[in-house]
Amino acid sequence: MPNWPSGQATANILKVGIAKEFGLDADVQEIGTLNAFVGLENGTVDIHPEVWRPNLDDVIKKFVTDKGVVVLSKRGVAAWQGICATPSAVEKGLQTIDDLSDPEKTKILDTDGDGKGEMWIGAPTWSSTGIERVRANTYGYAKNLTLVEAEEEVAMAGLDAAVATNQPMVFACYAPHFIFDLHKIARIKEPPHDAGKWKLVSAADPLWISKSTASTAWSAAEFHIAYSKTFEKKHANIAAFLEKVDFSPEEVTAMSYALEVERQTPSDYAKKWVADNANRVDGWAKQ
């Protein structure tokens, strides 16, 4: 189970669904994605519910393509990533990626009184967080903004407070996500994705962030369920079940809203979701 809301909901939905359809009890453990892939290889992890691309393409190449120890489900959920701004940040001139490199404009993001604005770029364990740091370095706004890494729950509480008090805020964002239902958030405009302007060194290199460059928007994103090859051999029926799981972006948004805004526990949410979608879950299990 990853440490973001939709991944927590999905992990528990899979747990409840597998128990319902196959009579097997799964343990849900919160593990960072890179450690989870190591676990998928060594047998301590069987399933990862939400593997993002292109963020983890380097890891996918290593474990799926080269080693052949992990299977990535064929079905994915469409997603996107970028940088967002609150209405007050947009009103005060932060609308494009070039605006973020102007210290006169970004000083309105200062919340700690040091004269320099802050920007949340993701949780410490997310692969996207390092890539956002690369983007900040390449675009140039790393020079005049303090790049903050913190758990998403902390950042979203900060976003709620910023919107409530009309405090300008700029932050890394992704969809599907509940914040777009909750607040009027705008995307910061960037040049369209150009693969030729993205040069990411493998995260296995300790200096990968300083060696990498990325000066356009993210490419289109998607996320998939992953499971170990060993698990597939042992439980081919459950692997086939995982291949049929077909969440929509709207459902994933609803998951994150239920957990983060309504404060439902992942376990309780999953039990209700599976009960409400019993016929659909039965369909996933049919061979």
What is the structural class?
alpha+beta
Topology order in helix (H) and strand (E) letters: HHEHEEHHEHEHEHEEHEEHHHHH
Compute the average pLDDT.
95
Basic shape: globular
Percent of residues in helices: 40-55%
Give the percentage of residues in beta strands: 15-25%
Poorly predicted spans: none
Distance between the termini: 26 Å
Largest sheet: 6 strands, antiparallel
Q: How would you explain this protein's 3D organization?
A:
The chain has 287 residues and is an alpha+beta fold. The protein has helices at 5-22, 33-42, 57-66, 87-91, 103-106, 127-139, 152-165, 179-182, 208-211, 229-234, 236-244, 249-260, 266-276, 278-285, and strands spanning 47-53, 70-72, 77-85, 117-122, 145-149, 170-175, 186-187, 198-199, 213-214, 221-228. Helix 6 links the parallel strand 4 and strand 5. The mean pLDDT is 95.
Can you summarize this structure?
This protein is an alpha+beta fold. It has 14 helices and ten strands. It has helices spanning 5-22, 33-42, 57-66, 87-91, 103-106, 127-139, 152-165, 179-182, 208-211, 229-234, 236-244, 249-260, 266-276, 278-285, and strands at 47-53, 70-72, 77-85, 117-122, 145-149, 170-175, 186-187, 198-199, 213-214, 221-228.
